[in-house]
Amino acid sequence: MLRLTTSASTSASRIIAGPSVRRCLATAVPTNPASPSTDTTAAPPRRKRFEKLDDGLTFDDFVSGQELPDANERVVLGNTTQPRLPSFLKHPIPTGASYSNIKKELRGLGLHTVCEEAKCPNIGECWGGGKGNATATIMLMGDQCTRGCRFCSVKTARAPPPLDVHEPENTAEAISRWGLGYIVLTSVDRDDLVDGGAAHIASTISKIKQKAPKILVEALTPDFANKGVDTIHTVASSGLDVFAHNVETVERCTPFVRDRRAGFNQSLRVLEEAKMGAKNAGKEILTKSSIMLGVGEREDEIHETLRRLRQSDVDVVTFGQYMRPTKKHMKVDRYVQPEEFAKWKEVAEGMGFLYVASGPLVRSSYKAGEFFIENVLKKRRAAAAEQAAANLSTQSPESTSTASVASA
């Protein structure tokens, strides 16, 4: 049983018996005894208030009664330093049955696309086509990159999750269902892996070719920095048709645009080694690279970049406008007009590139470019088959029989 001590009971009795205290809200007594309603100097004259309206200020500015700052001291809200987005860069929000079906199918197989991760403006156009026309660039090895390029919106992590061993099979299964003639694969950089993910990419390409032998495969690859040239050769000789690796920008801007582990000369060596690795394996491939405009490059630097790409035997080049994914990424230096893109297309074609796609909304995996490359590769293969048949028919019976005995 709880008992109160004498002091405690006395305190309790005082609390109970003491006078009650009532609390209420109160207004502080003004120091000036004069009533606010009778003070004619409390607010500025009505005319001065309306004069402030002519200065283009807000409602709060002219009713506050405070002194206004000088024009050169006022804070201007909104982004006035960045150029406004031109109308030719605005795209409608992607919708439609084909778009929804592709998205649902990719989610069901646990696949990622660079279309979504990089916030590509052409996603509605590419995913919105009918069966056989819709395209999606599948991003291998997860959605977390070990690099942190200042233009890219793909998530960054020092230690991404382990590779999905079922991804090559799931990717090949999804692509075979679409019934496409051309597919683009890309991937994040995985510097944490011993081979940079080269074997994983090569396995995906091989499985696609097994399930759909007629499909043409383009792979937009990492640079496999410090992993050895064998990693590049592994991908280049895996059966792909187009080996793509982007220099992204001119050499001077590279340290400010790309991750510091990526280099301009390093990217050129990747493209050169890809051609060499495919040739050593008895395969013929096209090499491809892309350049972003609007990051601070100069005209002479673009000319030099094109010259060095041709020197590295690159077949295809694309030009596109850099568009800032979020406010955390680097700012747009300028928005390039369509006329300038047309000029660079003409310049690049004059330098001997097989195909050039150039426009504000052109990206590395560009639908129109893929169709052109598909036709080029098919014509080349048809010509090679005709040449092989002609060579076989011109062989003498003695050489044919000798070859048959040797093969037996």
UniProtKB/TrEMBL annotation:
- SMART domains for this protein: Elp3 (SM00729)
NCBIfam families annotated for this entry? lipA (TIGR00510), PRK05481.1 (NF004019), PRK12928.1 (NF009544)
Q: In which pathway does it act?
A: Protein modification; protein lipoylation via endogenous pathway; protein N(6)-(lipoyl)lysine from octanoyl-[acyl-carrier-protein]: step 2/2
Is the keyword Zinc in the record? no
- Return the protein name: Lipoyl synthase, mitochondrial
Q: Where in the cell is it found?
A: Mitochondrion
Per the entry, which co-factors are needed? Answer: [4Fe-4S] cluster
- What InterPro entries does this protein map onto? Aldolase_TIM, Elp3/MiaA/NifB-like_rSAM, LIAS_N, Lipoyl_synth, rSAM, rSAM_sf
Its main subcellular localisation, reduced to a broad class, is mitochondrion
